[in-house]
Write a structure and sequence with these properties.
Two copies of one chain form a homodimer. Chain A has two helices and nine strands, in the order H-H-E-E-E-E-E-E-E-E-E. With about 180 residues, chain A is mainly β. In chain A, strands 1, 2, 3, 4, 5, 6, 7, 8 and 9 form a nine-stranded antiparallel sheet that branches. In chain A, strand 2 and strand 3 (about 60-65) form a beta hairpin.
Chain lengths: ~180, ~180
């Protein structure tokens, strides 16, 4: 759904943001930054750039990079293999990210979701140094502020292929790194 | 075992190293950086500065800061509550860290351990961008190179109070943050 050129450009954008933060990456890591458009073909609006440092059967760490106002589509991490599902902590490193989770809707949320299906409107605003832990199987989506955002994600085991998206039009894009 | 002055000085050292890397911390986090001398009273030789971002029942993330040639004493993370014990990934952010784990001893290891009990001599050298996952219940210790080191630790749940040290003289120092 995205062209090779879009992918290369998005990878380069993400690597540049991580470089700016002084986060040292190996050449191998630079080449395998993932670009996800969730199968929608509107990458700059609904999409995500991410680098998975490691992902074992028990723990995982990633860097997430968002363009200005880019949105990661609403989804949840369901139980699997006898676990309650992925539990994840977002820690904002640069920019601002607005995270929306299930719960009491925030009056006048800062973000408008892009076209699609969005049901969670309890807003958490994360500036650099701010963090939030999302329980497993909890619907959430997030959108960067006007300068984009870099977010570190610490979690239990990650199985992106099991993610359940609210919008039936969404397909988790296959890994398009490298 | 360490004075209030030593503690303040070590905290300030760690915060300065994290600031240099552009890692944004909250005021609350700056104040609760932990300083561990493992009960030995030789902090600059055998000790560690650390900040725990979060630690749930399932996942944990920390920043570890080491002074030049400072050593974290040999220990393992035993099974608890039906889990195999803490599994942790070290990712070097700055400086160089030499990690020693159980296994084939490395001929001519780069580091000499300080006085104490050290049995693991399989060496892994981590430069910035390098990482290594230590299985649960595996003996390990680590020492910074001449410029000190900052290491991100991603893991399953952390229970420092359960750590088993090789040296019976070691007691995991109580948290002396803040």
């Amino acid at each position: 759904m995205i062209t090779a050129e879009e992918q290369r450009e998005a990878q380069a954008y993400a690597v540049a943001r991580l470089d700016e933060l002084g986060i040292v990456l190996t050449e191998e890591e630079r080449a395998r930054v993932e670009v996800a458009d969730f199968g929608l073909g509107r990458l700059r609006e609904t999409g995500l750039q991410l680098l998975t440092y490691m992902n074992t059967e028990r723990h995982c760490a990633k860097e997430l990079v968002l363009r200005p106002h880019q949105t990661c589509a609403e989804h949840r991490h369901p139980p699997f293999e006898g676990t309650p599902g992925k539990e994840e902590t977002f820690r904002c490193r640069s920019g601002v990210v607005y995270l929306y989770v299930e719960g009491e809707p925030t009056p006048h949320p800062a973000c408008t979701p892009p076209p699609g299906v969005y049901t969670a409107f309890h807003e958490i605003r994360l500036e650099p140094g701010g963090q939030y832990t999302i329980p497993p199987n909890t619907l959430h989506w997030f959108q960067a502020g006007p300068d984009g955002a870099v977010v570190s994600e610490f979690s239990t085991a990650s199985r992106d292929e099991l993610d359940v998206f609210s919008d039936p039009a969404v397909t988790r894009a296959p890994v398009v790194g490298g």
